């Protein structure tokens, strides 16, 4: 009859376990071992958190402090030790000396600073843990005291002894006298505080254990007489109530179940037994093969027990905790304490509607609940008697006397029972492996043999079931008795459907499979911690709970943590930010969560960029994890938006070419290397104003002068000259005079530095005779001394005059990639009124110069300490320190580093680079996002070939596998953030190779071959990596051109098929010939299309239109023979200006040809495009696979191919 | 100091020229070079044909016992049990003092086996003893394992500290070449010159020629790499590393040959895994119906 289960939650192997204690709030269990070790386990994670080894000899006694992070232990070394268990300060705080023999049990008082200890020295002692003094010694037992415990509320102690008695002690006196009491020395005075209240005699041998009932005046004791005795006490007396017999060897321990009317005991007969407290009958026995049990303890709050035996310990539950529940719209039906309750999630009203007290047996909670809203009926199952179910209707109105589910009398045997339709339910008989379909009268209508070994059935959509087998889940149609789909999974324990029924989450112990309703698509999530429950968010995100977390899973499998949990919960429904759940005692609770992170990721995945922006702007989503997620998914531009750290922000901004952000962060960082990097990047993009600012900041006078020269900023050059003067820098003075064309100043500089010959020659060649003579004088020479010097022609070396003052203009600069987010985010910035839109203005630049001019006489070191050169000196010692630290780093540290492939993926937004790294998933995501590809099958050879060519293998040590050498794009990559894989597909190779063959095939009229070649070229072009924007532009042109060729070839091939298959359809043939000429081919090939059209139209006697093509042909200036025939056609058209066959072709309006239907889409008509090639399609093809390449989804959103880093 | 013959033998061995090692006759049994030469001879056999067990031989020498145990490991069905034997040998050398080069052999072979079975930490641990740090072969193996862990930084450190006492040893130069191909920034030139020097001798080994080709590939000198590769294949048309490079360029013949000679080559394994991964990744995308005129 009874089938109470022992559900093992955790098990460990060790030396004999003598004592156990649960932490009241955290998932910790302390175990004291016979070998002297005290272990601290996290039973949820299954990890050993800590161990304490200071006792000498066996440790039998162990207990946690109820509120503080303390542990007390007592050993055979007569010592009581108190430990701080916080990992950072774990140590023995103090040791209490005084006992004269082994310690048996210890305990902290629940509110006083007292420690209770029981010892073989026949005494029980109470210690003050603050003063660390013994404050009471309870004497009276005449043999070992095996156990002593405080009462959980009253001032009582119960103890058990080998003297065959159980004693109850009154310690209320102790509490009264505790505060600031004087140090007492004599035993007599100790005893004054505590008295024996009752001596319970009845055991025939020594008593090993005695414990109080948590709330009732009851005591349970266990002894070597193999008996468990139940005692009751009143204010004045205590007496034996009854004895439980059944153990056939010494009973080590016995205690009350904290929640139910049960007693648990463990003994040396290798059993744990459960007894009914009121009937004193055995309920269940759990046996172990070899291990005698020595210790038993119950968690104070949870349905959790631990038992210690010869070879370790087990943590177990006696019943399933997971409450049975079913959700219907806003109402949750669930079972608590054997009542079906109806809980309104909106109002919170909660009423009992049905009793299920008689279902199964009293110790077992119902397992599942299925609700039928049409009939307001419930199906409840229980594991009792190998599985039973009951069908009952709920009353229309709550209130009044509750009916019991048995009163309907509709019941039967079966492991699972669920409603499958309004008037049908299915019952699984696990042993017979049959599924019965029954109506609401519980009448059998059909019996089905499931196609697989079925352990559980779930709702599978109308008239369908999900069958869970050990290796798969099968979607089974009940009516047709047919397998609709099968998905291999680990054992599935629960199935959760989304509210629209489009998706299902299949929960196993450690896996979640998220699938669509036909089980055709799925993703798998693996968790190391046990998965407990889950529910769907309205937006299609699956929220689930594990033992210690609430997490989310996106449809494609990305997951993350939302919240940490102390105790498991069972999710029932998610509505917005509110998460409804049942706690482990089946009480409804709500938890508010922050859904921002997963909504953000979901929006990214669904390309819902407006939503992404909305979230960016309205929430404060930050954190390293979001940033790395964005980088991994290829959205560096968004990542930039989240980065707070200035350094990273600067690096990202430089990488994206976002000068505004780069300038802003450079100002904040104000480091020379940042300014130099900014200057370089700004120079690349042609933003000379930012270059100017940067040069000014780092005082790069030489470059600044040169910049002013190239921008024609004469005024500023003049200032630079003055600054050079002030700085006394002759070389700079010389440069500036050269740039400004100021000859006098140039000569002066040369003269000042003593280069008289040069000064003289300069003056001479510029016709400045006076100056030349002055120089001669200064050098102490006369013209006569210069007879042997040749004369030179006049030369001024003047810079060209300024025609257009570009100094004040903003040059057209290279835009970075045109990207939805950058635009949007920059717009956002503008709206905030960001100051750095086009570099700092000229006035500010001038001011900076003026400032230098003014203060430059003083030494540089006097400047603000992070401006100027002082900074460089500070850096040197710092670098040395770092080196020293590295030296000390442990060489044996062998944690794996970041693989080259990871770097590639991280560094590059180019799909080809992700392919090379073998990260096909992200490569596909990039291709989908950039050019809308959904069908990757045709790209498989390219994927594999690129991946295979990105590594080489270097022979190294004997018998070792070779070293993998990643092949990089540039032979010099000085930083991990700059490495990219080797380029397998180059534009040059394709244009000079395959493309030429394709053109040849067109010329020689091998159209099927040409089509194949263009298709393969277009495939390859997806993976081309170019090195400049010019090349990127060229690539786009080639893609577009190949598309035109492929379209043209396809149209013509279709026309040829038509001529063959439907020769009577002349009209269509004419149209196709005309459309072919619309494709933008090179002139040489365009003539082919025109000649073709000309011939086809002439043959059909459509002379007028034939002449139109002929004229276009003549314009292209073809070969003489062709020219002659074209002229003939024109003449024929003039002579006979009409068309014999009517057809649809408007030669005067621009149009594109739909690549699927080969019909014209005239300018202004709606159309959708292929996101990759830009081929046009009629709107009705939106969402379908493109017909030219069979790669992309027509009309899908796309950001454009990135082929350039 | 090693004799001239032993030095030559080691050079061949380090350059993976195992055939040359095998064709070198052993010195007379009473020569001090006999035992080390014998050990290199046997290790070369194992490197060339790992699946052929060595003839059983009783020996006192720890090095020879290690070679035998390693051979046992290579051919064993139950790898775990075979590792145990090596572990015991390591324990044995740890108990002894002053074993000299034999300790290095025990450690290198054990660590090789540990690494091959995925026991990376144990492998590194085996190579981290005080004596092991002064043994070049241990250093070389440590560096290779660190490179496999993507820890070029650690490999660099291992190299630098060994350079302090064995700057110009051939093996260390090889290690430097390996490391310099993996660091960021890399030093492709130095690796290239090391391999160039080793291959411009009268009879270069095919693996070194293939390594030269790799260094050239890294430098971006594709035609030169092709030249080295052709030379390597001429030298030994069955050299796995050369075949891999040739197959990488799309040579189907080389691919088939490599599959036959060394089906477990990491490149082939990675390629096979990539195919599976591609199929998995592809399966996540739903392909809509084709747009056609009839639709």
TrEMBL record, chain A:
Record-level Gene Ontology MF annotations? structural molecule activity
WD repeat copies, ranges: 10-51, 52-86, 96-137, 138-172, 200-241, 244-285
Tell me the superkingdom of the source: Eukaryota
Localization, UniProt: Cytoplasm; Golgi apparatus membrane
Annotated ranges, domain Coatomer alpha subunit C-terminal? 854-1202
InterPro entries named among the record's database cross-references: Beta-prop_COPA/B_2nd, Coatomer_alpha_WD-assoc_reg, Coatomer_asu, Coatomer_asu_C, Coatomer_complex_subunit, Quino_amine_DH_bsu, TPR_COPA_B, WD40/YVTN_repeat-like_dom_sf
GO-annotated biological processes: endoplasmic reticulum to Golgi vesicle-mediated transport; intra-Golgi vesicle-mediated transport; intracellular protein transport; retrograde vesicle-mediated transport, Golgi to endoplasmic reticulum
One cellular component term from this protein's GO annotations in UniProt: Golgi membrane
- Key words of the record: Cytoplasm, ER-Golgi transport, Golgi apparatus, Membrane, Protein transport, Repeat, Transport, WD repeat
SMART domains (UniProt xref) = WD40
Name all COPA/B TPR domain ranges.
611-767
User: How does this protein lie in the membrane?
Assistant: Peripheral membrane protein
Q: Which Pfam families match?
A: B-prop_COPA_B_2nd, COPI_C, TPR_COPA_B, WD40
Q: Where is the COPA/B second beta-propeller domain?
A: 338-583
Physiological role: The coatomer is a cytosolic protein complex that binds to dilysine motifs and reversibly associates with Golgi non-clathrin-coated vesicles, which further mediate biosynthetic protein transport from the ER, via the Golgi up to the trans Golgi network.
Record text on subunit structure and interactions: Oligomeric complex that consists of at least the alpha, beta, beta', gamma, delta, epsilon and zeta subunits.
Q: Known PANTHER family for this protein?
A: COATOMER, COATOMER SUBUNIT ALPHA
Its protein name is Coatomer subunit alpha
Query: What species is given as this protein's source?
Result: Dacryopinax primogenitus (strain DJM 731) (Brown rot fungus)
User: Mind giving the lineage of the organism this protein is from?
Assistant: Eukaryota, Fungi, Dikarya, Basidiomycota, Agaricomycotina
TrEMBL record, chain B:
Q: What Gene Ontology terms for biological process does this UniProt record contain? A: endoplasmic reticulum to Golgi vesicle-mediated transport; intra-Golgi vesicle-mediated transport; protein transport; retrograde vesicle-mediated transport, Golgi to endoplasmic reticulum
Q: How does it sit in the membrane?
A: Peripheral membrane protein
Report keywords, A-Z. Cytoplasm, Cytoplasmic vesicle, ER-Golgi transport, Golgi apparatus, Membrane, Protein transport, Transport
Give GO terms: molecular function aspect only.
Answer: structural molecule activity
Q: Where in the cell is it found?
A: Cytoplasmic vesicle, COPI-coated vesicle membrane; Golgi apparatus membrane
Gene Ontology CC: one annotated term:
Golgi membrane
Broad class of the protein's primary localization: membrane
Enumerate the Pfam families for this protein.
Answer: Coatomer_E
Q: Does the keyword Transport apply?
A: yes
State the PANTHER family in the record. Answer: COATOMER SUBUNIT EPSILON
Family membership:
Belongs to the COPE family.
Summarizing the function annotation, the protein's role is: The coatomer is a cytosolic protein complex that binds to dilysine motifs and reversibly associates with Golgi non-clathrin-coated vesicles, which further mediate biosynthetic protein transport from the ER, via the Golgi up to the trans Golgi network. The coatomer complex is required for budding from Golgi membranes, and is essential for the retrograde Golgi-to-ER transport of dilysine-tagged proteins.
Protein name per UniProt:
Coatomer subunit epsilon
């Amino acid at each position: 009859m009874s089938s109470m289960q022992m559900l093992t939650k955790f098990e460990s192997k060790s030396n004999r376990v003598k004592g156990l204690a649960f932490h009241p709030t955290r998932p910790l269990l302390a175990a004291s071992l016979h070998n002297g070790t005290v272990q601290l386990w996290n039973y949820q994670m299954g990890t050993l958190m800590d161990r304490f080894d200071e006792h000498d000899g066996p440790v039998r006694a162990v207990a946690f402090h109820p509120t503080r992070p303390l542990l007390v232990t007592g050993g055979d070394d007569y010592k009581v030790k108190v430990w701080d268990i916080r990992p950072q300060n774990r140590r023995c705080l103090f040791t209490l000396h005084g006992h004269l023999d082994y310690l048996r049990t210890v305990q902290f008082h629940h509110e006083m600073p007292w420690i209770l200890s029981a010892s073989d020295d026949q005494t029980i002692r109470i210690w003050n843990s603050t003063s660390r003094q013994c404050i009471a010694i309870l004497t009276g037992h005449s043999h070992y005291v095996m156990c002593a415990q405080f009462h959980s509320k009253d001032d009582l102690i119960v103890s058990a002894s080998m003297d065959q008695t159980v004693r109850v002690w009154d310690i209320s006196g102790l509490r009264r006298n505790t505060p600031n009491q004087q140090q007492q020395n004599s035993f007599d005075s100790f005893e004054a505080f505590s008295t024996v209240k009752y001596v319970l005699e009845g055991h025939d041998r020594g008593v090993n254990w005695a414990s109080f009932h948590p709330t009732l005046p009851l005591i349970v004791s266990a002894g070597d007489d193999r008996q468990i005795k139940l005692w009751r006490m009143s204010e004045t007396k205590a007496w034996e109530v009854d004895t439980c017999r059944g153990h056939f060897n010494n009973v080590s321990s016995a205690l009350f179940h904290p929640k139910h009317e049960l007693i648990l005991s463990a003994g040396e007969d290798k059993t744990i037994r459960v007894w009914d407290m009121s009937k004193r009958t055995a309920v269940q026995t759990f046996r172990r093969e070899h291990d005698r049990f020595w210790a038993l303890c119950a968690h104070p709050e949870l349905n959790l027990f631990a038992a210690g035996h010869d070879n370790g310990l087990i943590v177990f539950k006696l019943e399933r905790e997971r409450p049975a529940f079913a959700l219907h719209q806003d109402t949750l039906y669930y079972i608590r304490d054997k009542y079906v309750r109806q809980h309104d999630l909106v109002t919170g009203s909660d009423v009992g509607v049905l009793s299920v007290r008689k279902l199964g047996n009293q110790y077992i909670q119902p397992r599942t609940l299925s609700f039928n809203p049409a009939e307001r009926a419930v199906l409840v199952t229980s594991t009792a008697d190998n599985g039973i179910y009951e069908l009952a209707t709920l009353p229309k109105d709550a209130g009044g006397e509750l009916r019991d589910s048995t009163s309907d009398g509709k019941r039967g045997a079966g492991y699972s029972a669920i409603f499958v339709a309004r008037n049908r339910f299915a019952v699984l008989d696990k042993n017979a492996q049959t599924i019965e379909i029954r109506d609401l009268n519980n009448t059998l209508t059909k019996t089905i043999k499931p196609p697989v070994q079925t352990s559980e059935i779930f709702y599978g959509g109308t008239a369908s079931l999900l069958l869970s087998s050990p290796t798969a889940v099968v979607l089974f149609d009940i009516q047709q008795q047919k397998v609709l789909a099968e998905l291999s999974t680990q054992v599935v324990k629960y199935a959760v459907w989304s509210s629209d029924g489009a998706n299902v989450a299949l929960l196993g112990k450690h896996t979640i499979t998220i699938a669509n309703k036909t089980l055709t698509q799925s993703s798998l999530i693996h968790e190391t911690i046990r998965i407990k429950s889950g529910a769907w968010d309205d937006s299609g995100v699956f929220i689930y709970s594990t033992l210690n977390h609430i997490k989310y899973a996106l449809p494609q499998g990305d997951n993350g943590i939302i919240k940490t949990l102390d105790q498991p919960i069972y999710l029932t429904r998610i509505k917005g930010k509110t998460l409804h759940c049942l706690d482990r005692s089946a009480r409804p609770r709500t938890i508010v969560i922050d859904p921002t992170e997963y909504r953000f990721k979901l929006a990214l995945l669904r390309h819902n960029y407006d939503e992404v922006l909305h979230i960016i702007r309205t929430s404060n989503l930050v954190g390293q994890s979001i940033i790395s997620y964005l980088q991994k998914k290829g959205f560096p531009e968004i990542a930039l938006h989240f980065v707070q750290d200035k350094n990273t922000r600067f690096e990202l901004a430089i990488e994206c070419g976002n000068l505004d952000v780069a300038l802003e962060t450079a100002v904040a960082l104000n480091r020379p290397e940042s300014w130099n990097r900014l200057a370089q990047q700004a120079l690349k993009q042609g933003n000379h104003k930012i270059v100017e600012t940067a040069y000014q900041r780092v005082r790069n006078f030489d470059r600044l002068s040169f910049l002013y020269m190239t921008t024609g900023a004469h005024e500023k050059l003049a200032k630079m000259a003055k600054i050079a003067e002030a700085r006394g820098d002759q070389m700079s003075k010389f440069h500036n005079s050269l740039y400004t064309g100021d000859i006098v100043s140039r000569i002066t500089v040369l003269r000042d530095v003593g280069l008289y010959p040069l000064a003289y020659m300069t003056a001479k060649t510029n016709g400045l005779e006076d100056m030349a003579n002055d120089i001669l004088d200064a050098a102490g020479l006369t013209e006569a001394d210069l007879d042997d010097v040749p004369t030179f022609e006049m030369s001024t070396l003047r810079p060209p005059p300024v025609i257009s003052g570009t100094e004040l203009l903003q040059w057209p600069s290279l835009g970075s990639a045109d990207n939805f987010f950058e635009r949007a985010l920059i717009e956002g910035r503008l709206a905030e009124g960001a100051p750095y839109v086009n570099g700092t203005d000229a006035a500010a630049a001038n001011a900076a110069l003026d400032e230098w001019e003014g203060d430059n006489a003083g030494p540089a070191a006097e400047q603000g300490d992070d401006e100027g050169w002082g900074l460089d000196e500070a850096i040197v010692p710092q670098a040395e320190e770092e080196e020293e630290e590295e030296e000390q780093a442990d060489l044996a540290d062998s944690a794996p580093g970041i693989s080259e492939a990871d770097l590639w993926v991280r560094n590059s937004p180019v799909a080809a680079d992700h392919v090379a790294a073998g990260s096909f998933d992200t490569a596909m995501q990039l291709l989908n996002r950039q050019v809308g590809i959904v069908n990757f099958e045709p790209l498989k050879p390219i994927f594999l070939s690129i991946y295979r060519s990105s590594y080489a293998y270097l022979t190294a040590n004997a018998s070792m596998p070779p070293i993998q050498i990643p092949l990089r794009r540039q032979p010099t990559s000085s930083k991990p953030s700059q490495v990219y894989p080797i380029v397998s597909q180059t534009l040059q190779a394709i244009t000079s190779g395959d493309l030429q063959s394709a053109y040849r095939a067109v010329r020689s009229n091998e159209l099927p071959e040409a089509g194949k070649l263009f298709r393969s070229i277009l495939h390859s072009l997806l993976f081309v990596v170019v090195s400049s924007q010019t090349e990127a532009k060229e690539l786009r042109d080639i893609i577009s051109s190949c598309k035109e060729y492929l379209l043209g070839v396809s149209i013509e091939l279709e026309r040829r098929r038509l001529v063959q298959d439907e020769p009577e359809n002349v009209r269509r043939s004419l149209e196709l010939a005309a459309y072919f000429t619309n494709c933008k081919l090179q002139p040489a090939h365009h003539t082919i299309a025109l000649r073709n059209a000309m011939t086809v139209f002439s043959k059909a006697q459509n002379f007028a239109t034939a002449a139109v093509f002929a004229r276009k042909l003549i314009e292209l200036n073809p070969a003489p023979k062709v020219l002659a025939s074209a002229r003939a056609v024109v003449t024929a058209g003039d002579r006979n200006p009409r068309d014999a066959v009517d057809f649809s072709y408007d030669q005067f309006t621009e149009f594109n040809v739909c690549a699927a239907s080969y019909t014209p889409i005239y300018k202004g008509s709606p159309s959708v495009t292929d996101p990759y090639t830009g081929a046009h399609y009629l709107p009705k093809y939106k969402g379908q696979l493109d017909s030219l390449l069979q790669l992309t989804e027509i009309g899908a959103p796309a950001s454009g191919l990135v082929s350039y880093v | 100091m090693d004799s001239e013959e032993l030095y030559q033998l080691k050079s061949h061995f380090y350059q993976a020229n195992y055939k040359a090692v095998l064709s070198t006759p052993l010195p007379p049994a009473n020569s001090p070079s006999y035992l080390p030469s014998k050990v290199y001879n046997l290790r070369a056999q194992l490197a060339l044909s790992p699946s052929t067990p060595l003839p059983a031989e009783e020996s006192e020498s720890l090095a020879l016992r290690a070679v035998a145990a390693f051979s046992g490991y290579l051919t064993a069905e139950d790898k775990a049990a075979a590792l145990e034997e090596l572990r015991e040998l390591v324990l044995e050398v740890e108990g002894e003092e002053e074993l000299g080069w034999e300790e290095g052999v025990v450690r290198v072979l054990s660590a090789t086996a540990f690494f091959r079975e995925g026991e990376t930490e144990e492998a590194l641990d085996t190579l981290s003893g005080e004596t092991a740090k002064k043994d070049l072969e241990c250093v070389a193996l440590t560096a290779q394992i660190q490179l496999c862990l993507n820890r070029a930084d650690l490999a660099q450190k291992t190299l630098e500290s060994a350079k302090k006492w064995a700057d110009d040893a051939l093996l260390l130069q090889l290690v430097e070449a390996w490391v310099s191909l993996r660091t960021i920034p890399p030093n492709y030139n130095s690796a290239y010159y090391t391999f160039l020097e080793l291959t411009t001798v009268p009879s270069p080994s095919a693996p070194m020629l293939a390594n030269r080709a790799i260094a050239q590939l890294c430098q971006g000198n594709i035609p030169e790499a092709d030249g080295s590769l052709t030379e390597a294949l001429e030298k030994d048309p069955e050299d796995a590393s050369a075949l891999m490079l040739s197959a990488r360029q799309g040579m189907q013949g080389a691919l088939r040959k490599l599959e036959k000679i060394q089906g477990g080559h990491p490149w082939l394994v990675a390629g096979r895994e990539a195919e599976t991964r591609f199929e998995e990744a592809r399966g996540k995308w739903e392909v809509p119906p084709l747009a056609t005129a009839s639709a």
